Amino acid sequence: MSARWTPSSWQNSVAAQQPKWPDQNDLEQALKQISSYPPLVFAGEARSLLASLGQVASGNAFLLQAGDCAESFEEFTAVNIREKLRVILQMALVLTYSMGVPVVKVGRIAGQFAKPRSSDTEKIGGVELPSFRGHMVNDPAPHSESRVPDPQRLVQAYHQSASTLNLLRAFTKGGFADLNRVHAWNQEFVTTSAEGQRYEQVAGEVERALAFMRACGVDTENHSALHEVDFYTSHEALLLGYEESLTRQDSLTGNWYDCSAHMLWIGERTRQLDGAHIEFLRGVGNPVGCKIGPDTTTDFVLSLCEALNPSRIPGRLTLITRMGADKIESGLRPLLRAVRDAGHPVVWACDPMHANTFSATNGRKTRHFDDIIREITGFVLAHRAENTWPGGIHIELTGENVTECLGGAETVSQEDLDTRYETVCDPRLNARQSLDLAFRVAELIRAAK
Ligand code: PEP
Ligand code: CO
């Protein structure tokens, strides 16, 4: 790791998982264009998120990070964005109401377009093709021409992120997220289900609490906290050229921020201590995350904390564990002890999705709701045993009624997977499964408190 950080110092280290762009000139032109565009987020917003995550690190708030595995250039509509926001708001309401702590809401949205892959090629219908690496890189259609990386896709990802963020800001500050509208967040296909009914009860209680406050003379009309929501964006900082092109110096503090999103994370496949991803993210002021898989050692985690958060700023670093339902409890405990004893103020978040993926009999990639709950349970139990705070969850979901993950109250079966399997990458929880999960998580954490 070089001593001096600059937005381009990552270029002196090895960057894993970068696409093989066919023409370096075209890539440079696209990146130059993005560098001239306005930032997508403001450094001050990243600092607000940092402060909120600081509250999570000290056990006074909970992180809900959720959204698509990969956003799509094709599924880019207002309805799609609204439904995703709606289910995240519902989950946050359930968690806040049941746990009695603020919920920090961060979407995997408005920039989550690039995917790391385990292999450079994949077989589709017996034909070997270069792997699909997310809409920001190539097209998923099963032809070798579609799979050629196209730098214009970086520019398109910027524009789609900007419009997505614009709509999110409108929804969260313009009335959609108003606590007086809690009933309207329940979608029709959810309302009739058991978890939808349970949500209606919570919404009814919130409504009564608001009426009670008004009756006591509290001016609920003029409390922005009741009408607006702080909703932050995040994605995996995978394509470092793109991230560098949106890295800007904050005029207030002089510090550098990656203004492509409020929070950035490093994936399981790119977290090499001497690699380019850690080098890049160590220098930006945003809150950052890093995925932690089943083979993680205490030495690695402590070095990671030193590399990404040497000043020990609470909320700066979120460790996102993804070890699998069977490994989490025993795998996590030594890490919790080591980080706690070293005095690093991290946020611990549980990604119960990525180590519980398997192929169904029809070949579809899927996950079982029960494994997801089992991994969160192990995560919470490990924290209880070590007296640390299970700070949050990191989930792949959609607001649509898809059939991509098995189980849940509606028991999606292997035969159902073909009905609505729409993800461009990993299988996501649908709106009902997501709401069900929020109730289960709230119960687990409450029991552990
Ligand atoms: C992801 O979050 O979609 C992902 C690829 O995760 P991981 O890096 O943990 O495998
Ligand atoms: Co994924």
CATH classification, class level = Alpha Beta
- Please summarize the sheet with the most strands: 8 strands, parallel, barrel
Mean pLDDT: 96
Number of domains: 1
Our Rg estimate from Cα atoms comes to 21 Å
Q: Work out the helix count.
A: 13
Number of strands: 14
- CA(first)-CA(last) distance: 40 Å
In the sheet with the most strands, the strands line up as 1-2-5-8-9-10-11-14
Structural class by secondary-structure content? alpha/beta
What pattern of helices and strands is seen along the backbone?
A: HHEHEEEHHHHEHEEEHEHEHEEEHEH
Q: Using the alpha-carbon principal axes, give the shape.
A: globular
CATH architecture: Alpha-Beta Barrel
Question: Could you give me the name of the CATH homologous superfamily?
Answer: Aldolase class I
Bound molecules: phosphoenolpyruvate, cobalt (II) ion
Percent helix among the residues? Answer: 25-40%
Strand content range: 5-15%
Named CATH topology: TIM Barrel
Fill in the keyword field for this structure.
449 residues, alpha/beta, TIM Barrel, 14% strand, binds phosphoenolpyruvate, binds cobalt (II) ion
